[in-house]
């Protein structure tokens, strides 16, 4: 297991980058705690796999260092980093049995045969392939082969880190849930440092202790699922986390109030004057649709009944927003207005969250 330090780390695929826009991975300075499970979350092309490949040694950064337990491994080959990596598409030895595929990393390091047999049996059960251990990998389905890849990545107990690059892409939905649960169990049992790359927020939020949200080559927030939901540090985090995502409105901020579509809205806290493009963000869970004439005038576009609740799609002053309503709530057709729970409102300047006066850093 290892603490992973990213020191002034950045990478460009251009030989002579001229500006920040030329960097696929913009400057990072972070310490990732030994033994925690992290998810790298973001849209395609945001730099997740680039960062993972630098950690694994498949890619050398354009600048900066990467350290395992304070030891510089920036230019150390992958074999010397003592990591296990599972890729998006299955990598298996077709001529070997499932058992031999799982045993390969242990045998390659001279592990005791009795330990190898016991550990392979344990991992085979974990990935639901006990009955196929003596089958050749050739001819197995893509999701079965990916389970073998996952198992081979998990079979060693002595690794510095386990790295997963979108490993459940080819797995059927039911098995995805089971394998995520098994990965969490493995983490709790052995305390490996785990880094899991995904664009799927459900995978990230259900797997990780901390989620690392990336946008345009930059880490915009590292936090627990609760922190990402309640206090998104960047408007992208609010948009990307949650379904529906956070509503964002242009606003004028004056102390403890915001003006949205010409209506004053209480913020629940005071803010110092800020420069740049000012906006407020509020999640649909903190938006209430009323017919009593209070709040911001709105127009109901449609109501989506998803069983446990309703998603109300509205428009205010040309901007669209979403609200979550109870299954039994009546959505007014005449004179609808929206109000916002002040505790659920965040203020942003140029897309970055502004802390209210008095909030602890």
TrEMBL record:
GO MF term (any one) = ATP binding
Record domain ABC transporter: where: 4-241
Q: Which keywords appear in this protein's UniProt record, sorted alphabetically?
A: ATP-binding, Cell membrane, Membrane, Nucleotide-binding, Transport
Spell out the family assignment given in the record's similarity comment. Belongs to the ABC transporter superfamily.
Record-linked PROSITE patterns: ABC_TRANSPORTER_2
List the protein's name.
Answer: ABC transporter ATP-binding protein
Name the InterPro entries for this protein. AAA+_ATPase (IPR003593), ABC_transporter-like_ATP-bd (IPR003439), ABC_transpr_FbpC (IPR015853), ABC_transpr_MalK/UgpC-like (IPR047641), Mo/tungstate-bd_C_term_dom (IPR008995), NA-bd_OB-fold (IPR012340), P-loop_NTPase (IPR027417), Transp-assoc_OB_typ2 (IPR013611)
The superkingdom listed in its UniProt entry is Bacteria
């Amino acid at each position: 297991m290892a603490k992973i330090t990213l020191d002034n780390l950045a990478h460009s695929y251009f030989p002579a980058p001229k500006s920040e826009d030329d960097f696929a991975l913009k400057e990072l300075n972070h310490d990732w705690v030994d033994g925690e499970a992290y998810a790298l979350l973001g849209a395609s092309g945001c730099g997740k796999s680039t960062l993972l490949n630098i950690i694994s040694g498949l890619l050398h950064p354009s600048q900066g260092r990467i350290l395992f337990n304070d030891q510089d491994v920036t230019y150390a080959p992958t074999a010397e980093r003592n990591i296990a990596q599972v890729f998006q598409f299955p990598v298996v030895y077709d001529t070997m049995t499932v058992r031999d595929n799982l045993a390969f990393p242990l045998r390659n390091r001279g592990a005791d045969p009795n330990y190898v047999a016991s550990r392979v049996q344990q991992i085979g059960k974990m990935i639901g392939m006990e009955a196929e251990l003596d089958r050749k990998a050739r001819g197995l389905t893509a999701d079965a082969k990916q389970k073998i890849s996952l198992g081979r990545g998990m079979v060693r107990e002595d690794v510095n880190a386990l790295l997963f690059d979108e490993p459940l892409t080819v797995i059927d939905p039911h098995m995805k849930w089971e394998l995520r649960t098994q990965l969490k169990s493995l983490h709790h049992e052995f305390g490996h440092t785990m880094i899991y790359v995904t664009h799927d927020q459900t995978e990230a939020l259900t797997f990780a202790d901390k989620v690392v949200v990336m946008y345009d080559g930059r880490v915009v927030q590292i936090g627990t699922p609760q922190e990402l939901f309640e206090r998104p540090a960047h408007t992208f985090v609010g948009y990307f986390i949650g379904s529906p995502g956070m509503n964002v409105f242009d606003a004028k901020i004056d102390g403890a109030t915001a003006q949205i579509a010409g209506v004053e809205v209480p913020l629940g806290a005071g803010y110092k004057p800020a420069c740049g493009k000012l906006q407020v963000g509020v999640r649909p869970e903190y938006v209430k649709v009323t017919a009593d004439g209070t709040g911001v005038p709105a127009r109901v576009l449609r109501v989506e009944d998803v069983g446990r609740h309703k998603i109300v799609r509205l428009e205010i002053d040309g901007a669209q927003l979403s609200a979550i309503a109870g299954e039994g709530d009546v959505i007014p057709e005449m004179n609808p207005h929206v109000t916002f729970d002040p505790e659920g409102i965040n203020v942003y300047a140029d897309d970055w969250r502004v802390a209210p006066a008095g909030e602890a850093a």
